[in-house]
Design goal:
Helix content: 25-40%
Radius of gyration: 16 Å
Largest sheet: 4 strands, antiparallel
Number of helices: 7
Strand content: 15-25%
CATH topology of the largest domain: Alpha-Beta Plaits
Length: 175
């Protein structure tokens, strides 16, 4: 079974650095097959018979901390869940016209509508969002770098860990 894993806050700004070749090697030692990485920001694809994505998250997290001394969060989805995330994208126009400003933020836990509403109320800018199945779709029309809608703010309002990738990366991982 194919899986996609995203690491949170790895190889960003020189913090929590893990070489992707070493991460692939670790995955192979854990018994995963076809371990591949995309870019240098912690995107993995691998095969395993394990269907429990939460067990896979814990396995990767423990192994990375033991091997590299890096405490990070893994967010894992099956290929079917990844395809469902793509199909459920409520911002098809943005995905086509400006994919680098559309982010999908995977969440560790399910998110409540009331929490998304509170987050939306806290944002006083042009960003807009919609909740999905353990994810949040966010459009940053003015760019991500200067936005006040940060991962820290999102995690605070949603009460769960998140990590995001732009639509271009989402689609590359689907390939």
């Amino acid at each position: 079974m194919h899986h996609v894993a995203l690491l949170r806050a790895v190889n960003v700004g020189g913090n929590s650095t893990i070489k992707m070749a070493e991460l692939r090697g670790l995955g192979e030692r854990l018994g995963y097959v076809g371990v591949k990485t995309l870019l240098q920001s912690g995107n993995l694809i691998f095969d395993t018979d394990e269907a429990d994505t939460q067990a896979l998250e814990r396995s990767w997290e423990h192994a990375v901390e033991a091997q590299f001394g890096v405490r990070t969060t893994f967010l894992v989805r099956t290929a079917a869940q990844w395809q469902a995330l793509i199909a459920a994208n409520p911002f098809a126009t943005e995905a086509k016209e400006d994919p680098s400003h559309l982010l999908v933020l995977l969440t560790r836990d399910a998110i409540a509508k009331a929490d998304v509403d509170a987050l939306r109320a806290a944002v006083k800018a042009r960003e807009y969002m919609a909740a999905g199945e353990r994810c949040l779709y966010v459009v940053y029309p003015d760019g991500i770098g200067t936005s006040k809608l940060t991962a820290k703010l999102i995690e605070h309002h949603l009460g769960t860990k998140v990590t995001g990738r732009n639509w271009n990366t989402v689609m590359k991982l689907a390939e």
